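This part of the workshop introduces the protein records we will be handling. Backbone structure tokens are a discrete shorthand for how the chain folds in space. Once this layout is familiar, the rest of the handout is easier to follow. The record below serves as our worked example for the rest of this section.
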Amino acid sequence: MLLAFTQWTPRTLSGVSTRSRDTAAVATGPPISAVGRTAAVLRAVSAAEPDGITTAETGRATGLARPTAHRLLTALQEEGLVDRAAGSGRWLLGPELYLLGAAAQPRYDVTDHAAPAVRRLAEATGESAFFSVLRGEETVCLLREDGSFPLRSHVLHVGIRFPLGVASAGLAMLSYLPDGEIDAFLARTDLSAYGEAHAPDAVRRRVRRTRRDGYALNPGLLVEGSWGMGAAIFDATERPRWALSLTGVERRFDPARRRELGPLLLREAHELGRRLRAAGR
């Protein structure tokens, strides 16, 4: 029987904390241009899938006033880019985005390359395995495969976004950026919505540990008891662009097991990176 360990949403860490998670507002402030505001609204709606997001939550997530958020959502609905659930009134991604995404898929989709690696990790470990991509200064989860262990962490799902340095995939990618880029990112980005463990000095300590071990460790920093490990995947310029990660309950990530999972994760990340580079990605 599958036992859901916990569920994270863009609004709360359910059952654990009521701190808000302001997706776009984690950066320096609301976008200025009309295109930037529209894009921020779409990202906020995307991050709230599949449950949807209210107008007020959209405003908080983007740093926009509620009337502005409502005006943009309504305009996007008229174009089919967002939809509104009849019962709850929550905003969801619209059908036109599906069509646009399908047209762009051949140029950008790498999940066919990543799916076998994610599946192997899930089968070999029994944990939930993920593939994420770097987009701007956020990581976006593209694939999830659940293993056989019945008790799982549901912190991550396909489409969820986190800033760099948050969750194991984001920490893995941040750790392999040049030191100057890391310092600049931490200087302009407020990760305090994720708790004291994401203060700049704490993140830098985890960066040093990630570089030492080769993989990133998230010891229950988003949801108590939900642990994760992540390994960066590098593009042809040797910059981190993707990541593989594993999540599960704390007792499945003790030191002895991490010594088993780490090399497995790194091998799959290395091989997937080789395949992606060979495919010109």
